[in-house]
Fold:
Amino acid sequence: VREYDEFWVKGQPYSLRDMLNGSVHTADFIGGSVFQSFLSGADYHRWRSPVAGRVLSAEVVDGLMFSNAESAGRDEDAGVLSQAYQSSVNTRGLVFIEADDPRIGKVCVMPVGITEISSVTIEVEAGRRVEKGTELGYFSYGGSSLCLVFQPGTVEFPAGMVKGTPIRVNAQLARVIRS
Structure:
């Protein structure tokens, strides 16, 4: 992932600089990895820390509601086809955590409100220590999306992850590869 290059997912802009709202931490993630998942209205809508560490910053970025990328075409499925675009323009949270494990470094947990969602509630603040699994916040209603942003060369995703397959709460999403 590059800071300003046009990085297109399904014909949609996916700018790291825009996703992270120009955060001072953006440079740390250039060349890193992004995991993005759709949450339907029936899914678990609380987000937990993927690592143990210290919260560096936590904020809600106000944004759009019901926005869809025209490039995605007609979308009858709650804005699912526009998730990448929405991660840069919709209401979202940014929780940056410095992991205790130096091989991981910083991680950004980014919940994104899609369709009618703009109710991103963050329950942690800068300086707080979190354990892996500590609740960071929640959505109050409906479908949404969640991104995890990792620094370059830190993680890889299991080959068995298949698009559309549900991921269980507390399931492994990635493994550390940096030594």
